[in-house]
Amino acid sequence: MTKSIADLAVQGLIANGIENLYCLPGVQNDGFFDTLFDSTDRLNPIQTRHEQGAAYMAMGAALATGTPQAFCVVPGPGFLNATAALSTAYAVNAPILALTGQIPTGAQGKGHGLLHEIPDQFAILRQLTKASCRVSGPGDAAHEIRAAFTALKSGRPRPVGLEIAVNLWTQSSDNAPRDLAVGGAPMPQPDSDAIAWAARLIAGARAPMIVVGGGAQDDAKAVLNLASRIGAPVVAFRTGHGVVPSDDPLSISMPVAHDLWTDVDLVIGLGTRLQSQVMAWGQDDAMKIVHIDIDETQIGRSARVDVGIHAALGDALPLLLDDVETFADPNSDWLDRVAAAKARRAAEYEQRLAPQLGWLNAIRAVLPQEGIFVDELTQTGYVSRFAFPSYGPRRFISTGYQGTLGYGFPTALGVAHARRDVPVVAISGDGGALFAITELATAVHHNIPLTTVIFNDHAFGNVRRLQMDNYDNRLIASDLSSPDFASLARSFGAQGLMASNPEDLRNALEVAIAHDGPSVIEVPVGELPSPWDFVLMPKVRG
């Protein structure tokens, strides 16, 4: 069967379940978009105003749904504009396909100075993805496209790259397959001996703790079943929020986990690097670690592991639970300690972080439990990571270890576009908001029902706070002149609101969530209490 390479790319996207293509078209991809014109009933192009917006939207949609998504950009500066989002997607395990154009094949590496030429674009793409494929001509087009989707659907979720040069889109491929749909590679099966050894360690533990990361988002029920059976509190830092609902007695925040860390005798890491706990808080010989992860390279990377199990949680946890079913009941003394530590920390949050809690409580009071919250690198955002309740998987979206300021608004657009069935609320500071505020035009054009709360302190608040606390108040380059965000939103055609206190914010949120379209709520704030004592906690073991 003869098809153009552009046909293969479009059909490959559709065949593998991609319904929306977040994109910014341009001359090197004109052949692709001309072909896409005839298939927009099955593959919907969502054009953005900047390449970072396209990539962040794809990432947000992937995190909110747990399904692969795709974005398409031109090469060179277009691709480079998307790389902050691509590196963030790599950090938070978002399965997105980065489809990027390229200059003509015969000119690559020649340094002629062609439009959008950069040295060795593909090398950069490979460094920011778990796998990257390049179509070099008609003969390998179908193979490379299928390989990209196989990688996208296999193993640890992470970005995959696919590069196609401008001169190849319209070329014909004579060996095109009828079906470009692919499945993922087989999952590694849990080692029975490792499962048995992990069960023996659990049997001997009197103070176990489970640490979950983004890799546990699709196995929430199994995680809770294990935690309940062995009496283990469950802690998440950023990407693991909601795996165990915040109102469950076994759900604990990072500060609570730190309080308990000195007495923990067994850590069970599930879909997490364990870096934020073990590397920061310490480990000694009295602490045993069981680590289960789909990515074998992560097991033992950040901590000395007693038992490593390379497997999907959905395969490993039922086997582990079967082996521990006959064990003695959970340690009631340990559970009492957990409850007491939770109560102490809750009181401390109220005492030391009242302003941020006031804003967060207002959001939580209006946002339904099934709604989705998107954080940011703000003084309020940092508090949200340990004090904003989350009641289910994929309902708390975070930037993970990349800490990409400005990610929140465009990512939340992708979340809200993909999950129109639930309300989505994003927070931002005035500094971060202006990284991508022009995507308000995208939100209006596509009528995306996102509510964004912008806390405006006319500063890079986190930078200013660290300069105050750590550098003798020597403030430099941290003060900002910020616009009237409510008026700015209205100028784009979005709804713009103001709120000066938590009660105002509750009222504004009710109006915004009921609105059919995007809304921005500006909240003027002054200096807020430092959250850093609750975020960067000292080493206590080893």
SSE topology:
Blueprint (H helix, E strand, L loop, with lengths): L2 E2 H11 L4 E4 L6 H7 L7 E4 L3 H15 L3 E5 L3 H5 L1 H9 L4 E7 L18 H7 L3 E5 L5 H12 L7 E6 L6 E2 L18 H13 L3 E5 L7 H11 L3 E3 L14 E2 L1 H7 L5 E5 L4 H7 L6 E6 L13 E4 L2 H12 L7 H21 L1 H13 L5 E3 L4 H9 L8 E2 L10 H11 L5 E6 H4 L6 H6 L4 E7 L4 H10 L14 H8 L2 E4 L3 H13 L4 E6 L7 H4 L7
Parallel strand pairs: 2-3, 2-4, 4-5, 5-7, 6-7, 9-10, 9-12, 10-11, 12-13, 13-14, 15-16, 15-17, 17-18, 18-20, 19-20
Antiparallel strand pairs: 1-8
Helix pairs in contact: 1-2, 1-7, 3-5, 3-16, 8-12, 9-12, 10-13, 14-15, 14-21
How would you characterize this protein structure?
There is one protein chain. The relative contact order is 0.11. With 542 residues, the protein is α/β, with parallel strands linked by helices. It is built from 22 helices and 20 strands. It starts with a strand and ends in a 7-residue tail after the last helix. The mean pLDDT is 96. It has 3 domains: 3-173, 3-Layer(aba) Sandwich (Rossmann fold), CATH 3.40.50.970; 192-338, Rossmann fold (3-Layer(aba) Sandwich), CATH 3.40.50.1220; 353-535, 3-Layer(aba) Sandwich (Rossmann fold), CATH 3.40.50.970. The strands form 4 sheets. Strands 3-2-4-5-7-6 form a 6-stranded parallel sheet, with helices on both faces. The chain has a 6-stranded parallel sheet with strand order 11-10-9-12-13-14. It is globular and about 70 Å long.
